[in-house]
Amino acid sequence: MISAVIVSYRSAALARHAIETLRREAESARLPLEVIAVVNSGDPAEGEALRAHADVVLEPARNLGFAGGLNAGARVARGETLLLANPDLVFLPGSVAALHDAVQSNGLLAAGPAFWWDEAATIFQPPADEPCPLDLCRRQLARRDRATADRLFRRELRRVTPAYRAAVAGENLRASALRGALVAVSRRTLDAVGPFDEEYALYYEENDWQHRLRRLGGALVYVGGAHVVHKYNQSARTEPRAAGWFAASERRYFTTHFGEAGVRAMADLAATPDRVGALAPLSGPFPAEGVCGPSAIAISPSPAFLPFLYQPLENTAEAWELPTEIVRGIAGSRWYVRHFDVASGRVYAEGALPSGAADTLGALTNPSPA
Question: What are the pLDDT digits (tens) for 312-321?
Answer without folding.
Answer: 998 766 778 8
